[in-house]
Design a protein that fits this description.
The chain has 215 residues and is of the alpha/beta class. The chain has helices at 10-14, 16-23, 29-34, 56-61, 73-83, 120-133, 175-184, and strands at residues 44-48, 65-70, 88-92, 105-111, 134-150, 155-158, 161-163, 169-171, 187-189, 194-199, 204-214. β1 (44-48), α4 (56-61) and β2 (65-70) form a beta-alpha-beta unit. The protein starts with 9 loop residues before the first helix and ends with a strand.
């Protein structure tokens, strides 16, 4: 039996105030644009780190059968309560150990997840897992925070780990280091990489976003 290791961010993500804030969000425009064409019959999408389920209605509407996973029960329970249906299955799991068969997912969505992992080794393991489950010809929609910009509110603990004033930990690599791990995991950027600053709580975060495919 696989043991899910608690994340240091768990208290934050299971807090009801945090859950309520994320429950009010809808799928981002860059994902809905990616879903503009209907999915092939029977296609599977993996929402890796589904949170409260903001992406699930759009994935189902595009014709996917969806597996939604998240490590944090507060988030996962909210997603299950509001987005359950015949085309959606839920599982509590870590993105470093995804309960999906090899090359099963035509689309993988992993938004705002990787920077919450413990360290660079976990991040590399997660990318290898996302590559493993991604079908040939499929797409990975990925965004994560990086060390492209480090807000003054972040305190460095060393080894790419930073802590926010509320005690939440983040593992922030430089964009170059992130892209090296992607290549090492067998993933290739399809199109352009988008990088920008996004409001945080508090401060700002440097976001790295791209669509990727298997090499």
């Amino acid at each position: 039996m696989t043991v899910v290791r608690p994340a240091p961010t768990g208290n934050y993500w299971n807090d009801q105030n945090t859950v309520s804030v994320f429950a009010a969000l809808s799928a981002p425009v860059y994902l809905t644009n990616l879903l503009s064409n209907p999915a092939p019959d029977g296609a599977v999408a993996l929402d890796a780190g589904c949170g409260t389920g903001r992406n699930l209605p759009s994935l189902v509407a595009a014709g996917f059968r969806v597996l939604a996973i998240d490590l944090h029960p507060g988030m996962l329970d909210e997603a299950r309560d509001h987005h359950a249906g015949p085309c959606v299955a839920f599982a509590r799991a870590n993105v470093t150990n995804v309960p999906v068969a090899d090359q099963l997912a035509s689309l993988v969505v992993c938004h705002g997840v990787l920077h919450n992992l413990h360290d660079r080794d976990d991040l590399g393991a997660a990318l290898r897992e996302l590559h493993r489950v991604l079908a040939v010809g499929g797409f990975l929609s990925l965004n994560t925070f990086t060390a492209g910009y480090l807000d003054p509110c972040l305190d460095s603990l060393g080894d790419d780990v930073y802590v926010l004033p509320n005690g939440q930990y983040m593992n922030l690599l430089t964009p170059d280091d992130l892209e090296s791990l992607l290549v090492g995991a067998g993933l290739s950027v399809c199109g352009d990489v988008t990088q920008y600053l996004s409001p945080g709580d508090p401060g700002q975060r440097s976001v790295w976003r791209a669509i990727l495919t298997r090499v």
